[in-house]
Amino acid sequence: MRKLSAFIFTSLNGFFEASKGDISWHKHGEEENSYAVESLKAGNTLLFGSKTYQMMASYWPTPIAIKNDPIVANGINKADKIVFSRTLKKAGWNNTRIIKANIVEEVKKLKKTSGSDMTLMGSGSILTRFAEQGLIDEYQIMLDPVVIGKGTTIFKDIKHKLDLKLITTRTFRSGVVLLSYGPLEK
Questions:
Q1: Which bin fits 72, alpha (ψ -120 to 50), beta or left (φ > 0)?
Q2: Cα–Cα distances in Å, from 76 out to 12, 46, 47, 112, 121?
Q3: What does the alpha-carbon distance between residue 166 and residue 117 come to, in Å, rounded to a whole number?
Q4: What are the tens digits of pLDDT across the range 98-121?
Q5: How many CB atoms neighbour CB 49 within 10 A?
Q6: Domain locations in the chain?
Q7: What integer pLDDT is reported at residue 87 of this predicted model?
Q8: Is 96 a residue whose pLDDT tops 90?
């Protein structure tokens, strides 16, 4: 059975993006980049909402990304990817397929199959939908030491309480803290 983790970064005041989708406040240093490299070695299938997918696909396959960060670019470009979108007609980024409808049911099916584990990257509204359905096995939250103005909160509009247990923490020299949580056993 495949596991589903969610990876998202947030400001100290709980926003994963500032107004108009701005994420420039999120800083990645050498240590955080090494963490990304290690994470990609797991070979997980990467999952995205359409907005996150379009942002990532507009950068990682480019010559600039390959020059600036060849190891991460290679890993993310080679990874199998799934984008959840009702409007996207085609996925031009290699190894990507689109799931247009019934995303909760589709992920339930995927979790029952054999294969690599899956990681949902960002994608706040989909994170909330999957959390509501109990589909996420681990939440990896990268907490940046910054407070921003207006933005979108993690778990925006969630309808029920999530009881989680802390699995691990990791502190980076930059002040960024990675918090990993899992659901409490019932």
A1: alpha
A2: 27, 8, 11, 24, 11
A3: 20
A4: 999 999 999 999 999 999 999 999
A5: 21
A6: 4-183
A7: 92
A8: yes
Please state, in angstroms and rounded to a whole number, the distance separating the CA atoms of residues 176 and 145: 6
Class for the domain spanning 4-183? alpha beta
Let me know the angle formed at the C-alpha of 131 by 174 and 46, rounded to the nearest 5 degrees: 60
Token pair in block for residue 153: 């909160």
Q: Is the C-alpha dihedral spanning 125, 56, 29, 42 positive or negative?
A: positive
Please state, in angstroms and rounded to a whole number, the distance separating the CA atoms of residues 80 and 76: 8
How far lies 38's CA from each of 31, 44, 65, 106, 137, in Å? 11, 11, 18, 28, 19
Cα(155)–Cα(82) distance, integer angstroms: 21
